[in-house]
Write a structure and sequence with these properties.
This protein has 279 residues and is an alpha+beta fold. Helices cover 41% and strands 19% of the residues. It contains 8 helices and 10 strands. The strands form 3 sheets. It has a 5-stranded mixed β-sheet with strand order 7-6-10-8-9, with helices on one face. A 3-stranded antiparallel β-sheet has the order 2-1-5, with helices on one face. The protein has a two-stranded antiparallel ribbon with strand order 3-4. A hairpin with a 3-residue loop joins β3 and β4. It is flat and about 150 Å long.
Length: 279
């Protein structure tokens, strides 16, 4: 009896094992075939993009393409502002500066201290005395021209001299402001200036000055002086362009109607008191 139960248990165990192994559904040939590489790559690409958009803390990271598109107008604006600020500094310098009386220059000859000179003041004659080579005409000439002449003349005494001329201080470039301003006078141009800046340096136009009819008198190549009208009122409102000065210009600020009325009232008052005194 025991052997019969034993046989039954063995047979049931065998059938259960057989059913668990062979009862699985066989895969078709399509399932067994390898998947195309494109599908695998697309799936991996999607997983990579999802992983990049997630921040380390689990939050979604901003889309870089959208951020760049939003920042592009700001970049253009920053670039225009930078160009405008640079342009303001560039306009403050002269492209060519010519020396004149009272200017101070320094001449340096590389590795030749005995031929170098510091703080040379240009005299009214425009000629400076230089060691060995004698007098050099500097007035009315640019720095590059002076460097070239000194180099050529020193080459007779020094082998391949390297000459550098620097403008230390500028006193010859001047302009004049006359008329109805706070402090009329002669001013030095240490840099390139506009009419508006020159008026500000002179204390600006007083209450009798006509800022709409200012003239800049400029010497022409033929020796004549030509007026250049400047409406500072429109310039300060941003509706007109300012005028840059050159050395030797004269800014003339005429009087306005209030000045004329004040003169008439002064004459009338003086006449009244004269009649009172005579009586």
């Amino acid at each position: 009896m025991r052997s019969g139960w034993h046989r039954c248990i063995v047979i049931v165990s065998f059938l259960f094992a057989f059913n668990s192994v062979f009862a699985q559904e066989p895969k078709s040939d399509l399932d067994k075939a390898p998947k195309p590489a494109g599908q695998t790559n697309q799936k991996q690409e999607r997983q990579r993009q999802v992983g990049e958009k997630k921040a380390p803390g689990g939050a979604a990271a901003p889309d870089s393409s959208k951020s760049d598109a939003n920042r592009q107008p700001l970049r253009r604006e920053d670039q225009s502002e930078a160009e405008a600020s640079i342009g303001a500094y560039v306009n403050s310098f002269f492209t060519t500066t010519r020396l004149g009386p009272e200017d101070v220059i320094t001449v340096d000859v590389f590795d030749q201290p005995s031929y170098s000179r510091a703080s040379i003041t240009v005299p009214p004659s425009g000629r400076v005395n230089y060691p060995v080579i004698g007098q050099v005409m500097v007035a009315g000439r640019a720095i590059e021209e002076i460097e070239k002449e000194i180099t050529e003349r020193l080459s007779e005494y020094i082998r391949e001299p390297k000459v550098t001329v620097q403008l230390v201080r500028v006193h010859s470039m001047k302009y004049m402001v006359v008329g109805d301003v706070a402090t009329p006078g002669i001013y030095e141009m240490t840099r390139r200036m506009t009419v508006n800046e020159a008026l500000a340096k002179a204390g600006d136009v007083n209450r009798y000055g006509d800022i709409k009819n200012i003239n800049v008198l400029r010497l022409q190549p033929n020796g004549q002086t030509a007026p250049i009208p400047v409406n500072i009122h429109e310039v300060r409102r941003g509706k007109a362009q300012d005028v840059f000065l050159i050395p030797g210009d004269t800014i003339v600020v005429p009087g306005n109607k209030f000045k004329t009325i004040d003169k008439v009232m002064s004459v009338a008052t003086l006449g009244y008191w004269m009649r009172v005194i005579v009586r």
